[in-house]
Amino acid sequence: MAATLTRLRPRRSRLVWRNTVAGWSFILPNFVGFALLTLVPVVALFYLAFTNWNVFGAAEWTGSANFRRMWGDASFWTALRNTFYYTVFHIPLTMAAALGLALLLNRKLRGVGFFRTAAFFPYITSIVAIAVVWNQLFSPEYGPVNAFLRAVGVDNPPGWTTSADWSMPAVIIVGTWREMGYYMLLFLAGLQTIPAQLYEAAKIDGATSWQRFRHVTIPGLRHTTFFVVVMLTIGSFKVFDLILVMTEGGPGQSTLVLSQYIYQKGFVENQFGYASAVSIVLFAICFGVTGIQFWINNRRES
Amino acid sequence: MKRAIPAVVSTAMALTLVLAGCGGEDEPVDPNAPVTITLAGWSLSSTPEFKTLADGFKATRPNVTVELKEYDAANYDTQMIADLAAGTAPDVYVLKNLRNFYTYQSGGQLLDVSEAGSALGSLPALAPYQVDGKTYAVPYRQDSWVLYYNKELFDKAKVAHPDGSWTWDDYVAAAKQLTAGLKGAGSTATGAYQHVWQSTAQGFALAQTPGADLLSGDLAYLKPYYQRSLDLQAAGAQPTFGTANTNKLSYQVQFGKQQSAMLLMGTWYVATLLNQRKSGEADTFEWGIAPAPQYDRSTAGTSATPVTFGDPTGMGINPKISKSKVAAAQAFLAYVAGEEAGKALAGIGITPARASDPITETLFALDGVPGDDLSKFAYGTHEIRPENPVSNHTAGMQNVLNDLHSAVMSDSKGLDEAITEAQARAKNEVLTQ
């Protein structure tokens, strides 16, 4: 017995080694790119955040100076607040819209392919084009949105992207509209995995359609929902392009979000050390929130 | 991904520093040996000035070839900073405005070009590029802000043409009269158009108000300029900031298609307007330029020197240039800021840094440029103050002021409140950092 084992071990470890090498070689092309273009810079970022690097010259170690500065930086807090504002509304709205669309388009319906494509369209449309068109739709004096509101009796329709109070809702609406198609697709895929027998059984037991939704569809979609929530959370915290092309953070600082603040400090004012420190805070927030979501999900699972 | 770029840049920079240590050329230089220097430019197909300068220099120094390297116009400074840090930037590069001059100069990215600078004689636009008695770049363009006006719309509204004596109150009154007069004549054009840029209010306020200082932290000087803008848009004499912003109005269309009778804009628009008239993108109409409206009577009128603003566009030399090319690059800098290059630039409608009568005449000889005396006066006589005073706080201050601009012009915040807030932010986030 012992003799067999010793004969087997080297062969098996060679097999494991060979499999590992084969596995690594498959992911190598992607990993090299990832390491070179993402991993190394991200590691460097953690160092830069503690320096006063301004692109040219040496990065002097300044310890926690950047973080202390951030503590007293009103613009940073504004950006943080706005980021949470966007996230808190964008996640539930997009989830609800995406799930609603998925349920609607999950039935046997003439032309369902067309409607699914139509709902997915905003996601693949150029964001700059979206920003230009939506800005025109939202135009306070001549835009169709306000023309419609006036027609239905709203006397003082909001100024949307030209008003500090309404610019964030405007951006959230466009963000939701743009992304709901993508998440609808994920929900549609999730809906296909729920066995039809469950619905049949529920029907036979006399469950109403609301009860079937509540007790069959929702639990059946749990894994999809978790994935969607995590992706939406990360996506919302790091929202950048949409805001940059729609409002550039304005009017005033009403739509300034963290990633745009990082861009401004880093690439406009060349304070890369400080920008890196803000990036770390954004990273920590994303990491923390996602961690909590995983923890909750695991607890429910067990 | 955005966060990744600085680190890549720093890694690349470290590598170049190691590699650069191995070089070192100290051979004697033959002044007539063929040399090629590289020059940064943007949007080469639609911006002919770089080729004009390269060709013009080749005519005076046949052994030197200037090779153009194209950058993206909108991201020029970001790309140039990355290339400089990585050591791959061209030998000679353009400083688009003064906002980033401090970054380049203090970062050691500009060679001392006092030699080329001293050959230029007196050139007011040279001063911002001088630090501690040394010159780090030379200006080749010096645009300034003037008032463009549509003579036909003035006549239609029965309003007297500008005579060069306007203060801002005269401008506001004229804009309102024009709007009313044009409406009476059945036209929907507005009296004025104020583009969405912060400089349309802040540039004039900073240049003209006595004692105004961007870096003092006291921003009260902005107040009257914003009051007038808000007054004009509330009266309907110019499209509102909200409309201009959400509909992405272009000032070229607004003035060129006769939607507005007056437009405050930099002198670069002369070349654009001429081209657009040819291509049909702009209507053909009688137009003229007048000095920008003034803070008070003391600088108004054709016997005085009106005050306006504008940043020079300059060129500097990358310190990583090989030693054998420095002399040729210095000669190129002396050429671009000189009289001859000035005429060549004026010939394509561009305002060179050097102001002289022959240069003004070259520009006014172009087809489509108005020939009246006031236009010539406005183009040739003025005191130009920089929009971006050179300092390490300028970029930060301009960002704070840009937020103020959008908050005030969109009526999101009261003027006093916005100024108080901007002052607090300037003190807390910029001037003490």
What oligomeric state best describes the polypeptide chains here?
A: heterodimer
Q: Count all strands of chain B and give the number.
A: 13
Question: Termini of chain A, distance in Å?
Answer: 40 Å
Biggest interface in this structure? Answer: A-B, 59 and 46 residues
As a whole number of angstroms, the C-alpha radius of gyration of chain A is 25 Å
Strand content of chain B: 5-15%
Strand line-up in the sheet with most strands of chain B:
8-9-7-10
Which segments of chain A are poorly predicted (pLDDT under 50) over 5 or more consecutive residues? none
CATH architecture of the largest domain in chain A: Orthogonal Bundle
Over all CA atoms, what is the radius of gyration of chain B?
23 Å
Please write the string of helix (H) and strand (E) elements of chain A: HHHHHHHHHHHHH
- Residue-averaged pLDDT of chain A: 89
Tell me the domain tally of chain A.
2
What is the strand tally of chain A? 0
List the helices and strands and how they pair.
The complex is a heterodimer of chains A (302) and B (433).
Chain A: H1 2-48, H2 65-71, H3 74-104, H4 112-124, H5 127-137, H6 144-151, H7 167-192, H8 196-204, H9 209-220, H10 222-237, H11 241-246, H12 258-268, H13 272-301
Chain B: H1 4-20, E1 35-42, H2 49-60, E2 64-71, H3 76-86, E3 92-95, H4 101-106, H5 114-118, E4 130-131, E5 134-135, E6 138-142, E7 145-150, H6 151-156, H7 168-184, E8 190-193, H8 199-208, H9 223-234, H10 241-246, H11 251-256, E9 260-266, H12 269-279, E10 287-291, E11 307-309, E12 312-317, H13 323-336, H14 339-346, H15 357-364, H16 373-380, E13 383-385, H17 394-409, H18 415-431
